[in-house]
Amino acid sequence: MIHLLILFFIFLFQACSPTSDAKTNNLFLIPLAQENNIGSVAVHGNLDSLDVEEVPLRENSVSLEWALLYGKGPNKITRDSKLVVDEKGFVYVAADIDSDPFYNELTNKSIRGGKDLILAKYDSQKNVIWMRSIPGILGTKLNVTGIAVDSKENAYVTGSIIGSLENIPVLENQDMLVIKFDSNGIIKWIKQTGAGDGKYEVSPKKITVDTFGNSYIVGTSNGPLGENGFIVKLDTNGNQIWIDHLSIPGADIIPVGVAFDKVTGNIYMSGYGHNANFATNTTPGIGQNDLFILKYDSKGNRQFFAQLGAPLKSVFGNAITVDRFGNVLVGGYSNADFGLKPDETSYIGTIVKYDSSGVQQWIRQFGQKTTIINEITTDRAGNVFTTGQTNELIKFANMPSEGNQDVFVTKHSSSGEVRQLWQWGTIRETMVGSGIGVDFDGNLYTTGWATRNIFNEIFGNEMMGAIDIFLIKFR
């Protein structure tokens, strides 16, 4: 049976028991609290001219407005979807997808192809503005890991690739791939780069873009001294401006997130390190794996910002964002006790907020079993949104999730109070939230991938492949 949970939180509440209609197999809602009526919502054409207090919040009116699925035929896999929302409210979704089978004349058989890259641009009513597909040659292995958009609606996609896309020489090792599309979806340039000797791999993780259209990519490259991190800056034409390698002998450094601060022009890198002290560039660290944040100026000068760990425990930072006030927020997962006391073998969702000086403001955790935050974002009022996957009913401790893994979306206030939680899944299936964004009107979008369609009863969307990606709008 398919379950959709929408959970609303305030400080004190009485929980209602879930009910569902077994005959119709309809999705059900669980209201856990009722907030006061906020009143009508004002619409402003230029939110940049407003103070924070003038931006109305729709705390009690959030609803699932629409959802869509995208796939490519029976048994095809479409996944690794990433999402970004531009200043005009257009939504961009990138993913990798199985290529069409290739006919081998020598064996007289059709064999599985490689991986293609797809990028789609939608308006707020889920109309497709354009969609582009870039095919990989036979055997190409592609993994989309990040997406960004600049003020001119140019979109940037990064990921790792073994093989090549069209018109790019074939390389045997895993390389970094970066593609720039203009506002009409036309490819401006493709950059594929790596070690070149077949010994080492390059694994880009995320990408961000500054005010001038320069892009910043973070990731890792393996080498004789262990996992080394990097951040590279490319200009608007894809030329490398600078690169910074992170390496501490005896330590592993895994950058996973990157974000641009529009106010200061600084770039923040987040991730986790094993046996690393980032303040002194020595060993050891605080715990088994520590979350770290480093700050860069536009010239590539590095500055230590923050490190979070606990003895014998791990804190993984999967995603980073900077709000309009310069606060830095990281979402991930941890088995450390920051107030929620997770089970001994469990890693639970963890959010940490720092001010612009690196002073910790608060830490929040949720879940008791395995709950992983994959992406994080904020709205104009400083509310914090995350998405990811879980194997439990997050609100009801020690109860299993509806599926193998369920998608969740959370909302916290700027001071860390839990405001809302959405969770949905279906029996014996897997759903993962992998991207999230908020537009200028406060509409929330999330993307991810699923092994079964849970939206058919509401929206009539049918699954196309073995795994499809989804895009959901909350209003």
From TrEMBL:
<dbReference type="InterPro" id="IPR052918">
    <property type="entry name" value="Motility_Chemotaxis_Reg"/>
</dbReference>
<dbReference type="InterPro" id="IPR010620">
    <property type="entry name" value="SBBP_repeat"/>
</dbReference>
<dbReference type="InterPro" id="IPR011042">
    <property type="entry name" value="6-blade_b-propeller_TolB-like"/>
</dbReference>
<dbReference type="Pfam" id="PF06739">
    <property type="entry name" value="SBBP"/>
</dbReference>
<feature type="signal peptide">
    <location>
        <begin position="1"/>
        <end position="22"/>
    </location>
</feature>
<protein>
    <recommendedName>
        <fullName>Beta-propeller repeat protein</fullName>
    </recommendedName>
</protein>
<keyword id="KW-0732">Signal</keyword>
